[in-house]
Every structure is written in structure tokens, then in C-alpha cells.
Amino acid sequence: YQRRGANSRAKMCSSAAFEFAMKLAADYEAKNKPKVEPIMDTAASDLPALEEKDDPLRVVGEIDYRKFETITKQEEQAELRQKEEEERRKKMNFCKLDHEHTATCQQPPVMSCAHDHSKERDLFEKPTSEKLKAAELFRNEGNKAYKEGQSDKAAYFYRKALLQFDYTFPDTDEEQKQLDRTKLLCHLNLAQCKLQQEDYDEVILQCKQALDLDATNVKAFYRMATAYMTKDNFVDSKRYFNSALEVDPNNVELQNGLRKLNKRIREYEEKERQRCSAMFQSKSST
Q1: C-alpha span between 257 and 162 (Å, rounded)
Q2: Which residue of 103, 104, 212, 267 is 20 to 30 Å from 146, comparing CA positions?
Q3: In whole angstroms, how far apart are CA 33 and each of 20, 22, 98?
Q4: Distance CA 47, CA 8 (A)
Q5: DSSP state of 45
């Protein structure tokens, strides 16, 4: 009799557990996913308390299944919050407006440009002959400004002349020769202006571009050698002085420049010897 009673109680417990499991499944199918309010940038501890239903079937023995449902809902909300934060950060990468970035921020079209290129387009559409005339006109204006001692103004006109060549494509050999000649003179003159302004890096750049047009140009060699010497780059300075003298060995200005360079090299070496001697004396005295 006692054995039959134990079996009966076991069947009752199994039946209760089965009914509870079926109820949980029905509730989940009915609710699907919980409705989530708009996610704000708050910590997980700021979430409103989840409503708990007083359902005795959710508690079986010492296990309270309502706690598991609460944890699951909090995890889902945290995951949604993380996704929204990632999306907001993506919007911040391209949206430059000073506002709170949301999913409504629009990404600008790729390869867009807000600059006005109408002047470049007009210059490009001009005939080559007109652009060559304009370049020569700007070069002459630069020469006039340089003779008046206005190197800044002269450099401006030389750059205006060089700008014409960015949009010029000669149709004949004669036009190509005229373009190369004017372009070479503009690079050399601009280098001279920058030499007076002590912009030695720009001097070197303009001289290299001049040498691309005329690989044996003495003026380009001389001005670049002078710029390197002023920057205390004696190796490159001597190299370009020697290159210029190979083209024009009787050039007095080149000879004087090389003598000046050799003098600076000797002065530099003497200063280095004195510095090293003073350093060794201070170490021996200690």
C-alpha cells in the first residue's frame, strides 16, 4: 500500500511539471519577442523594473523561473542597445552636422566635391593658342614685378602662368616647343624668387622640375646647389656645382659658388673638431 502511494505522488509531480512546461511554451509563442522601448544611452542598471506576474506555476520546488525570464529580457535589451550604439557611431564617421546622430543621418554620395570648378573647366575648354598667350603674358608680368623688387608678386604671376599648362595639350610640335620654353623659364624664375624669400625647399622643387625639361640647365644646377649649401647639405650642393661646371666650366659665378662652398665646408669641419676636442677634455677632467 505504501509503495502504491509513492507511485501515485510521483505521477502527480510529473503531471504538474508537464503542465508547467506546456504553459511556458504557450506563453513564449504568444508573446514572441518582448516589446522594447527606444534605447537611450543609459547603463543596464537604469532599466525599469520588469513586471512580474504572480503565477504559482512559474515556481516549481525551489526553482523560480521568473528570474530566468527577467535575465533573458535584460540581455535582449542590452544587445539591442549595443547594436544601436554601433549604428550611431557609424553615422558619426560621415555625418559632420552638430546634432545627435541617429539612423536618419544620410551618408553623402561617394566622390562628391563641393568646390566650384567652373574656372578650371573654362580654362580647359580654351584653345591651346590662347592658353599659351596667357601664360606668356603672366610670365612677362612676373618679370616686371621682379625687376621692381616685388618677388612675392612676381612669384604669383609665375604660378598663374604655370597653371595654364595644367590644362594645355599642344596639337603641334611648334606649340609643344613654345610650351616647354615658357614653362622652363617660369620654373627657373619662380626658383629665383623663392631663393630670395629663403624658401629653399621650394627652390629645389622648382629646379628639379626645370631639369625635367632641360637636363643640362646651368641656372637650375646653380640655384639648387645654392639652396643645398644654405641648408648645410654640402654633398648635394657640391654635386650640383660640379654638374653645372661640366656644362659651363668657365662660368665665373659657378666657380665663386664652389669656392664659397669649400670655405663653408672647412669652417664646418673646424667647428666639429673644436666641439669634439672640448667634449673629450670635459670627460678627461671628470
Answers
A1: 29
A2: 212
A3: 20, 18, 35
A4: 46
A5: G
Chain-centroid distance of CA 166 in Å reads: 24
C-alpha cell at position 83: 547594436
Q: Looking at residue 56, what DSSP letter applies?
A: G
Contact 247, 218 (CB under 8 A): yes
| Residues 137 and 123 sit within 8 Å (Cβ to Cβ) | no
Q: Can you give the pLDDT at residue 127?
A: 84
Say how many C-beta atoms besides its own lie within 10 A of residue 36's C-beta: 12
3-state SS assignment for residue 60:
strand
What value does the mean pLDDT of the chain take?
78
d(CA 165, CA 167): 5
Asked if 136 contacts 161 with a C-beta cutoff of 8 angstroms, the reply is yes
Distances (CA, A) of 229 to 190, 210, 246: 19, 19, 19
Q: For position 274, what pLDDT does the model report?
A: 87
Contact call for residues 65 and 24 (beta carbons, < 8 A): yes
Task: For helices 200-213 and 218-230, give the axis angle rounded to 10 degrees.
Answer: 160
Query: What is the SS3 assignment for 28?
Result: helix
- The DSSP code sequence of 85-152 is HHHHHHHHHH--SSS---TTPPPPPTT---S--HHHHHHHHS-HHHHHHHHHHHHHHHHHHHHTT-HH
* 179 and 165 Cβ atoms separated by less than 8 Å: yes
